[in-house]
Design brief:
Length: about 525
């Protein structure tokens, strides 16, 4: 059988069995001790004369002195024993076993493994058991918040099963709670759940005790934690104080931890949800919070949480602000060469002069504001409704690129109409080609007005039309050679070559026939 240390009660039980005539073998069969240990005890009992039931039974002290003579198994002292006080100090400061091992190896020349450090820490923990203080809170003083694992639901966006999370906020005085099932633990979700919880309770507690999740704390520290900027703004708007727990101490928010466990054990089992999405699941959850969970007799307080909340805590909460603060999310993104940055799969433009720079984004439910490194606003867009959507301000492109976007086919036709009928006819022919796209040629054709007068361009177009040359290059050559200044041809009639009275290098028919072959 497994080796274990017997106590005085065990020895007393074995002695009673021996005094009643039970053999060492029978005692071993009962599983109290092994066969060899039973024989050893039997020899001591016979030597003391204690096996006779008519003699006076020995006292506990006598039994302990006679039978409990075993010594603990000798162990090799740990290599960390000389550094016990230093290790204990490092543990108190919150260092991990790997960090303690690295420190002792570098500073003290410790020749031991990380496993040895872990075993020594377990030994220290047994030698110095921890005790906890029970905290009591006044009504409206504190609320504890945490995320837990939710049910698996069908994501309407993908049609696939997806694991959800449950947000729980528990009021420390009444134990009344708010719960909401969500898809993720992002900053925006974290802020929205707080707002929904405050509206559910009809007020705001003085403090909110949280874990060190990334949605709330960007740098966990026992003394100087760094709070997420968006969460800090929400706390300022609702006027509550953020109280992060020490790292790796979930017991400091035991009330909400118990609330999450109660959700998993009482709400989730044998629960069915209709349709994809979160709507039915959250509807059932709120009914459960206001029903079964809120009206149960709490195991610690022996009171009904909802009754305590209505009677005392609701009035003690701070009132909601008349104008609820926006749930603002801050993010950083790099501006790419296409003059757009990416946030949650959507694209937002910013000035081209900031390409390859990291910019700040201030995101609300409806807008996205872009700030340069100095904090000046350089872009403002409506929030994209789906991934892959582009929100573009043409002014953010370089001037020549922005001008390219403005020169649409409609713009080309409009500019050509201002020049004249022939110009409009050529542009219309270029844009109407169903095989080859001639939009660049149309843009360049109307762009010739920056170099030549519109009247000259129209004359050049008339000449090109008369020759059937409906091309940009033909018009450009006419202008470069000044052919537009000659007698203008009649539009619609082909240009005839002039008659030559005495052509050169021409022989008569007689001469041609007289040639011998």
């Amino acid at each position: 059988m497994a080796r274990r240390r017997l106590n005085v009660h065990d020895y007393g039980t074995i002695l009673d069995l021996m005094r009643s005539g039970t053999s060492a073998r029978q005692i071993a069969e009962k599983g109290l001790v092994g066969r060899r240990k039973a024989n050893e005890i039997a020899e001591i009992v016979r030597a003391k004369g204690w096996e006779n039931p008519f003699t006076v039974k020995p006292t506990r002290e006598e039994i302990t002195q006679a039978l409990d003579r075993g010594s603990p198994v000798p162990t090799i002292p740990s290599k960390l024993e000389p550094h016990r006080e230093e290790v204990q100090q490092l543990v108190n400061e919150g260092y991990q076993p790997s960090q303690i091992h690295r420190h002792l190896k570098n500073k003290r020349g410790l020749n031991a493994s990380v496993g040895a450090v872990k075993r020594f820490l377990k030994k220290l923990q047994k030698e110095t058991p921890k005790g906890f203080v029970v905290l009591h809170f006044e009504a409206g003083e504190d609320a504890q918040v945490d995320f837990g694992t939710g049910p698996v639901l069908i994501d309407p966006a993908t049609g696939k099963a997806k694991r959800t999370h449950v947000f729980v906020m528990t009021l420390c005085h009444s134990r009344h709670q708010y719960a909401e099932i969500v898809w993720d633990q992002k900053v925006g979700t974290w802020l929205s759940c707080h707002r929904n919880a405050f509206e559910f309770f009809g007020g705001v507690p003085l403090r909110v005790t949280i874990d060190n999740l990334k949605s709330a704390i960007t740098k966990a520290c026992a003394t100087d934690p760094v709070v997420q900027r968006a969460y800090e703004e929400l706390a300022r708007g609702y006027e509550f104080q953020i109280c992060p727990c020490r790292p790796r101490t979930p017991e400091h928010k035991g009330r909400v931890e118990a609330g999450v466990k109660y959700f998993k054990s009482s709400f989730l089992p044998l629960r069915e949800f209709r349709g994809p999405g979160l709507q039915d699941a959250n509807k059932q959850l709120i009914n459960w919070v206001n029903g079964e969970a809120g009206n149960r007799v709490h195991g610690t307080t022996a009171k009904i949480p909802l009754s305590v909340f209505v009677e005392s805590e609701r009035a003690a909460l701070k009132p909601l602000p008349l104008c609820p603060p926006e749930t603002v999310v801050w993010a950083k993104a790099k501006l790419h060469k296409n003059c757009h940055l990416t946030y949650e799969g959507s694209y937002y433009s910013a000035p081209y002069s900031l390409i390859d720079r990291e910019l700040e984004l201030r995101i609300t439910d409806r807008t996205v504001e872009i700030l340069d490194p100095k904090g000046h606003r350089v872009g403002f867009h409506p929030r994209a409704l789906h991934k892959g959507h582009f929100e573009t301000n043409p002014a953010h492109y370089p001037p020549e690129k922005a001008a390219y976007l403005e020169k649409t086919p409609e713009w080309c036709l409009e500019q050509a109409q201002k020049v004249g009928q022939a110009c409009h006819a050529i542009v219309q022919a270029l844009l109407g080609d169903q095989v080859v796209g001639h939009r660049p040629a149309a843009r360049r054709l109307v762009g010739l007005t920056t170099k030549y007068l519109p009247t000259r361009l129209e004359l050049a177009c008339q000449r090109a039309v008369s020759h059937g040359a409906m091309e940009y290059q033909a018009v450009r050559r006419i202008l470069e050679k000044g052919l537009d200044q000659e007698t203008p041809p009649v539009v619609g009639q082909p240009c005839k070559a002039p008659f030559i009275s005495s052509p050169r290098f021409q022989r008569g028919i007689g001469q041609m026939m007289a040639v011998g072959f």
